[in-house]
Amino acid sequence: MINLVILLDDPDFIESVQFSKVKYQPDDIILKENEVSQDVYFILDGQVQISTCIGGEVDRVLPGLARLAKGDFFGELAMFDGEPRSAEVTALTACEIAKVDGSQMLSFMEKYPEKGYFVLRELFMNLVIRIRQNNLRTKTVLELYLSEHNTPKS
Fold first, then answer.
1. d(CA 50, CA 16)
2. Mind listing the domains of the chain with CATH numbers?
3. How confident is the model over 41-72, as pLDDT tens digits?
4. Residues linked to residue 140 through DSSP beta bridges, in sequence order
5. In 3D, which of 26, 42, 28 has the Cα closest to residue 99?
């Protein structure tokens, strides 16, 4: 896979899409679950953790779903569907993140279809990897559940 961060140096992208580079310290919350925004985030340096809230206010747990590092990105789902964020993102280390306007990025992909194809291909390949990882996790959880509850397998 090619790193989408190279877009930040593309003259057409720079002219068409607003983005800012933001620095975060460890434990800073970069993105909150259920926040509404279409921004996409590119990790320029450092590591982040993707988490989701399980439980209520009293017994709230934030299990880590994934760790991402330099060259990775997050927030692409909301860019496409405009739905609230499905997870929280927290800095694990000192980070530099490029916050990219998602709606302008979509317009950029339409205006420059050859570059847009490259972007969509990279987004799609990233989603394929994440779906495969989630399939393995789901299978593992189901196998553990079935083995603990002595439920016969079909």
1. 29
2. 4-148 (2.60.120.10)
3. 999 999 999 988 776 655 555 566 788 999 99
4. none
5. 42
Q: How far apart are CA 5 and CA 97, in angstroms?
A: 10
**Average pLDDT of span 110-138:** 87
Confidence (pTM): 0.81
- The C-alpha atoms of residue 19 and residue 13 are separated, in whole angstroms, by 10
Q: Give bridge partners of residue 67 from the DSSP assignment.
A: 49
Q: What is the CA radius of gyration of the chain?
A: 18
What residue type is 45 in one-letter code?
D
Q: Which tokens in the block code for residue 29?
A: 């919350």
What DSSP element (H or E) covers 78? Answer: helix 76-81
Q: Are 102 and 40 in contact (CB under 8 A)?
A: yes
How big is the CA angle at 130 (ends 120 and 97), to the nearest 5 degrees?
A: 70
Q: Which tokens belong to 146?
A: 């079935």
Residue 23 one-letter amino acid: K
